[in-house]
Write a structure and sequence with these properties.
Strand content: 5-15%
Strand order of the largest sheet: 1-2
Number of helices: 5
Largest sheet: 2 strands, antiparallel
Shape: elongated
Helix content: 55-70%
Distance between the termini: 49 Å
Amino acid sequence: MVLILDAMIILWCVSPADKPYAMGFKAVITQLFGSMPSPLYTGIVIDSACTLWGKTPCGQRGACLLYDLPDYRYKLMGLFGFLKGTSFVFYIVAMVTLFRNPNPGNIGDCRGVSGQTGNPEPRPVISDSESQSV
């Protein structure tokens, strides 16, 4: 659902010439702030729940041998809940900002799906007699 919401907002609010750049920029930012640091802070939280560390042959700290399971569970689920809650707050702020305009036909600088603002010009109606004479 989040990917669809992101794409709809970008496709709705960006000029047609800039849509490919906007989608690429969104992908780069998502990878930069979402996918790349997540193993780091997830590993830090998991390591913080360790109660017994092993030793390497060199005498340095090795892999965790025993985790405090309730602590592990609360810290990991707390981290995921915090991240989901933070992203939810940012989405609510974005949606409120997007739909705050009193004119629902023209939302901020965003254009409609067709790329036009306001009502499009009416097309001429061809009657049945005109279409048969052609």
